Amino acid sequence: MTDNERSENEKSDGMDRIAKTLFAPIYPVLAGYFLDRFGRRDGVCIDLGSGPGSLAIAVAQSSSMMVWALDKSEDAVRKMQENIAGAGLTDRITPLHGDVVQIPLPDTSVDLVVSRGSIFFWEDVHAAFCETARILRPGGMAFIGGGFGSAELRDQIVVKMMERRSDWEPFYRKNMSPETVALLNEELARTNGVHGEVIRDDSGIWVVMRK
């Protein structure tokens, strides 16, 4: 194993650990938040930058949707495969290795796009938004951003993350800032084929697209 492969493996394991511990309560809350606003619990969903698959699993458990779980890390895909099998959802969730700037799905093939936390690491947000618009079916929606689902969960997790990592607070504050909202609004305005807005509430900050 090369140093880079070892680093990717350790990163994937670390994401999995925190998703199953400190972040565990947020995924069912966020899945409900997205599904309630979408107004349906059937069809096809994709989770972009799914990591260990926690949000994809929560969406499947809260609906009858078929779910794709996309990540560009092979280690993350292997980890999500284990987690999906552990949740007994291999017939409902399909792991997908790929990048948000070139999603390996056909045009108009997805009803709901969700993504939590991944966008802050995307190198080309506009390209990812265009790909999201491409795969959405008419009447489809997307929720892309970051957050913890509720004010109570946010306050609890932010304090604990700041205790764990001294560099985490400035990263979090930047991601939730009015400047980030403005930048995301600019990228959304440049995306053809969808309309929507950027919302910032107790659940987090979300680019909401409608087609």
Quick structural overview:
With 211 residues, the chain is an alpha/beta fold. It has helices spanning 3-20, 26-38, 54-61, 74-86, 125-135, 151-164, 168-175, 178-189, and strands at residues 44-48, 66-71, 93-97, 110-116, 136-146, 195-201, 204-210. The protein has a seven-stranded mixed β-sheet, with helices on both faces.
Characterization of the model:
- The protein is an alpha/beta fold and 211 residues long.
- It has one domain: Vaccinia Virus protein VP39 (Rossmann fold, 3-Layer(aba) Sandwich), CATH 3.40.50.
- The protein contains eight helices and seven strands, in the order ααβαβαββαβαααββ.
- Helix 5 (125-135) links the parallel strand 4 and strand 5.
- The mean pLDDT is 94.
CATH fold topology: Rossmann fold
Tally of individual helices: 8
Low-confidence stretches: none
What is the average per-residue confidence, as pLDDT, rounded to a whole number? 94
CATH class assignment: Alpha Beta
Give the overall shape: globular
Q: What is the fourth-level CATH superfamily?
A: Vaccinia Virus protein VP39
Structural class, judged by helices and strands?
alpha/beta
Q: Helical percent range? A: 40-55%
The CATH architecture can be named as: 3-Layer(aba) Sandwich
